[in-house]
Write the structure tokens for this entry.
Amino acid sequence: MELDKHQQAMIKHLFKNGRMKKSEVYTVVPTGGNRARKLDEMKSWGFVTYDLRKYENNTTFVELTEKGKMIAQRLIEIDQISEGKVPENQVL
């Protein structure tokens, strides 16, 4: 399994914003980028969970699992390192 750039963007967006509607998660991925398939893959890998609310206009909420949160933290640390910033808990 390998997260592509769109999946990385979605997982970091969820980490920064917490539980969100599925449509809100999609805002960080261009239209036509197979957004639903990519999010479903992350669900099958155990990175996110879905919460379908049938009585709230069939709204689906997406949330990171503990595993997904750990991955998001690492992705953010990698971004910080590539920008020349040292993550808070790291000493060089």
Summary: The chain has four helices and three strands. The first helix runs from residue 5 to 17.
